[in-house]
Design a protein that fits this description.
This protein is α/β, with parallel strands linked by helices. Helix content is about 45%, strand content about 15%. Strand 1 (about 5-10), helix 1 and strand 2 form a beta-alpha-beta unit.
Length: about 375
């Protein structure tokens, strides 16, 4: 018995990002053409959809400032297509990738067609919007959903604080592709490309270059590591608004030759960069309500057998188990991060043990197959 779902998500592969990957990986495992996905038309979409097991419908959903007449067009397109599909197919439920804009549309279509509605919540989108109209619309959608899927304990607690009934919330962590991200991949050429000697310790961060991710805290911690006798280097993968800021900062604190900003790397090289590093770090912090809801990059590092250091803000405690698969520290504190880095990089045995614990956890419960099984169980419960 296959479940028939209508899935509304603006974010879907080939769009980059953790959420896009999540929906693609889970729904391709939950069923075939009886699952219909309504999403945004993006470059490369046509080629991508040709071999996709699900039925993918693409709409032109260009972003415009919210709740003005010009964004009405996006809502109407989403609504029109979704309602038509819901009226011409017998769906068991309607799923929304986020509360806004998809959740609001999904709720309306679900009520008009007598179907249950499920909304995913990721954390960062719940906390960064103040308390205006957008926030009120989001609360409405979440409180009226039949089920809400939260990606971390932090997200679940935030939802309860917004008035969502706890018994309607299911906790499902995202997963990682353990075929693609795995230990034992060749990486020496990558270390050589940075001119690293055999004694060098490579710290790696992956993510959008935004202030809350804490790349600057890692850069500020490097001088004390080097002064303590550690040949520490720092590689950053990602693009974003903080590129110039990070380059300037590296020069200011005197570690420009030790900070390697790699921008985008080829997809096939990303797992090799995780293999090439000695420890993975994202010293995230909350800035003006903007926070990390979970952090799939921590799972990618764990799947490659690497210990991770995370900030304490947001939902990273679900991704990094403090003292087991890595460490969580105050992302605002350069001293705390330097101490954690020194502890892990200076103790090969502890570093390997944490990496192994993370690898075991990911292989047992945080691979996409396990996530799909848990999702199916929740949705049928």
């Amino acid at each position: 018995m296959h479940n028939r779902y209508l899935v509304l998500t603006e974010l879907f592969l080939p769009t980059k990002g953790g959420t896009a990957v999540w929906f693609d990986e889970v729904y391709r495992r939950l069923g075939g053409k009886e699952i219909h996905i309504v999403t945004a038309d993006v470059p490369g979409a046509h080629e991508y959809d040709v071999g996709h097991p699900n039925n993918v419908h693409r709409l032109n959903l260009k972003r415009v400032p919210w709740l003005r007449p010009e964004s009405l067009a996006m809502y109407l397109k989403f609504f029109g297509k979704s309602l038509w599909l819901a009226l011409t197919n017998r769906f068991d439920a309607i799923h929304a990738g986020r509360a806004l804009p998809e959740g609001l549309v999904a709720w309306l279509v679900a009520r008009l067609t007598g179907r249950p509605v499920v909304i995913y919540a990721h954390g960062e989108e719940l906390t960064g919007w103040g308390k205006g109209n957008k926030y009120k619309a989001m609360c409405f959608a979440l409180r009226h959903a039949d089920r809400v899927i939260a990606n971390s304990d932090f997200t679940r607690d935030t939802l309860v604080g917004m008035g969502v009934k706890p018994e309607r919330i299911d906790l499902i962590h995202p997963g990682v592709d353990i075929e693609r991200f795995r230990p034992g991949l060749p990486f020496q050429d990558l270390r050589d490309s940075l001119g690293l000697g055999s004694s060098a310790k490579l710290i790696l961060s992956v993510g959008r270059l935004s202030r809350r991710k804490g790349f600057d805290t890692v850069i500020r911690s490097l001088p004390s590591l080097v002064n303590s006798g550690l040949d520490a280097h720092y590689a950053i993968i990602g693009i974003g608004e903080d590129e110039a800021y990070l380059d300037t900062l590296a020069s200011e604190v005197g570690v420009a030759e030790r900070v390697h900003r790699l921008g985008h790397v080829p997809m096939q090289d990303l797992p090799r960069w995780y293999n090439a590093c000695d420890v993975f770090v994202l010293a995230n912090r909350e800035i003006g309500g903007d926070t990390e809801g979970f952090g799939i990059v921590f799972l990618e590092a764990a799947a490659c057998g690497k210990a991770a250091i995370a900030g304490q803000a947001g939902g990273t405690g679900s991704a990094v188990l403090d003292g087991q698969t890595g460490l969580r520290i105050d992302g605002e504190s350069v001293a705390a991060l330097a101490t954690a880095l020194w502890g892990i990089l200076g103790d090969a045995q502890q570093c390997a043990a944490m990496g192994q614990a993370g690898l075991t956890r990911v292989r047992e419960s945080l691979n996409w197959q396990a996530v799909a099984v848990k999702t199916r169980t929740c949705l049928q419960g």
